[in-house]
Amino acid sequence: MLELIRSARRTVCFEHFIFAGDSTGRRFADALGGAVQRGVDVRVLYDPIGTMMVKGGSIAKALAAHGVPAKAFHPVSVFAPSTWSRLRHRDHRKLLVVDGETAIVGGFCIGNNWEGRSRGGRNWRDTGLLVRGGIVAQVAVAFDAMWRQASGEESAARDFASADPPAPCGMVAADRPGAHHIASVYMWMARHAQLSLDITDAYLVTPEPVVRAFEEAACRGLLVRFLLPGNNNHPVAAASARRRYARLMAAGAKIYEWRGAMVHAKTAVADGEIVLVGSSNLDPLSMTRNYELNLLLADAATGRRMEEMFERDLRGAREIQPRQWARRPFWQKAAEMAAMVFDDNL
After folding, report:
1. Nearest Cα to 297, choosing from 125, 103, 25?
2. Residue 161 domain-assigned?
3. How far apart are CA 263 and CA 314, in angstroms?
4. Are residues 53 and 187 in the same domain?
5. Cα distance from N-terminal residue to C-terminal residue, the chain
6. With the CA atoms of 47, 50, 52 and 55 taken in that order, what torsion angle do they form, in degrees rounded to the nearest 10?
7. Burial of 337 (0-12, 13-18, 19+ CB in 10 A)
8. With 60 as the cut, is the pLDDT of residue 159 above it?
9. Is the pLDDT of residue 5 over 60?
10. What is the rounded CA–CA span in Å between residue 177 and residue 179?
11. Which has the minimum average pLDDT: 86-100, 115-129, 200-214?
């Protein structure tokens, strides 16, 4: 991302749920400021609520000092009548578009956790997808829609360098509050895959229709595998996710927990050919409340690389064995039951 920003000639569209004011965020602020100094038309959109969740505070002052045009998406004020709605519906997307030619979409936020510099953030595992060609225009259109919503103006950074059809075949799978687009994509993948479905996710707090589609896929003989955090940055979400382990394993699904600090990637690969990469977690916030952005591709070469990456990740994970899981400590089962309250309030 930094290399792309530093090489930009015309436009940069940059949108992130978390844009922290730590050392990593300042590196990006410097690169964006350098682009502005070169005459590049830069637009930055970040979520102020998401940014408050990490150390380092907001990057807003650093961006302003560099003269970078930036907007906080739906800032919350106790005096605004729409505060509750704005608080519930956040911009959880993560994207970069440079010169209308290249885009990156994925799970990365901008902060030390993803750089590996913070004491508690080493070995965070995440995935982004870099694309070129016609699909980049779709990502730029998606950015424009959010920029207009945040600022009330058309983005001057709209720059479509290629009108060619996307290759490989792909589409932007955007989601907005109440639309349930990504839930439908996951259910479609589960129902139409013929051989396998490999899913990596941070928070398996899955809405019932989606988890039922995964169960049904495993029951009909599909190889369904989940790579999930063994150490989760949200312990209550972890307990809630583990409530679903038994029923998924009973259906035949395999569950692996990452042994590093945190797996934050949001990816799915069906039959080694259909690939989903983006910002949407398998939780009610992503699937019902937030603005999200994902890329959905049909490409065997990309699918093979994603499968290879998944297999490498499994070497850094441990498989949850059904018999051992049934004998887990009582306190762990109690935590999972208590997490039902968390589910009900999402």
Report:
1. 103
2. no
3. 12
4. no
5. 33
6. -120
7. exposed
8. no
9. yes
10. 6
11. 115-129
Q: Which residues contact 47 (CB under 8 A, 6 or more apart)?
A: 16, 17, 18, 72, 73, 74, 90, 91, 92
Distance CA 26, CA 137 (A): 28
Shortest CA distance to 298 belongs to which of 274, 324, 326, 327?
A: 274
For residue 325, list its beta bridge partners: none
Tell me the C-alpha distance between 261 and 338, whole Å. Answer: 24
The CA angle 153-104-173, to the nearest 5 degrees, is: 70
Q: How many Cβ atoms sit within 10 Å of the Cβ of residue 132?
A: 14
Position 140 pLDDT exceeds 80: yes
Mean pLDDT score across all residues of the chain:
89
Measured between alpha carbons, how far is 76 from 134 in angstroms, rounded to an integer?
36
Does one domain contain both 73 and 115? yes
Query: Domain range spanning residue 264?
Result: 169-344
What CA–CA distances, in Å, run from 234 to 23, 26, 225? 23, 26, 22
The total of structural domains in the chain comes to 2
CATH number at residue 260: 3.30.870.10
Q: What amino acid occupies position 195?
A: L
**CB–CB of 98/131 below 8 Å?**
no
For residues 45 and 187, membership in a common domain is answered with no
- Kindly state the average pLDDT of the residues 100-125: 80
323 in the same domain as 210 = yes
Q: The whole model's pTM is what? A: 0.90
- Residue 121's pLDDT is 47
Q: Do 127 and 243 belong to one domain?
A: no
pLDDT band with cut points at 50, 70 and 90 for residue 114? confident
* Single-letter amino acid, residue 190: A
Token duo for residue 192: 């139409």
pLDDT in tens, 17-52: 999 999 999 999 999 999 999 999 999 999 998 888
CB 133 within 8 A of CB 302: no
